[in-house]
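Handout, section 4.2: multi-component inputs.
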Amino acid sequence: MANKDLVDLVYDLVRKVPVGSVTTYGLIANAVGLKSSARLIGYIMNHAHDAYPSVPAHRVVNRNGLLTGKHHFKKSSMQTLLEAEGHVIVNDQIQDFKNKLWDPMSLLE
DNA sequence: CTGTTGACTGCTG
DNA sequence: TCAGCAGCCAACA
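Output:
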């Protein structure tokens, strides 16, 4: 098992986010060891469109549960995708966000 | 090689 | 409570 690039590691982690749950940039950054570099996650997710298999970037939001990256979804709206998975979006924000939040560290443990 | 940018977060005033 | 600033790391010009 060769060491993957940081980008691939983030992709793989996001793909493992369970349906009906969401995670945050900060938690992902922490899970890959970057801890304070949530911005990198955002930058990496920008490239996620070119990643294969496709990365469910719509399950990744900022720590407030706000759909900060929805503007980057060209085909389908981020909100639509989340609602299709059972999430409730109001004012670009996930309702009951804390209850739906999934910590990637729990997978690594 | 150097500087800028970015789907963020946390602290400080 | 709200607004502003600094920090973090990688990719691109």
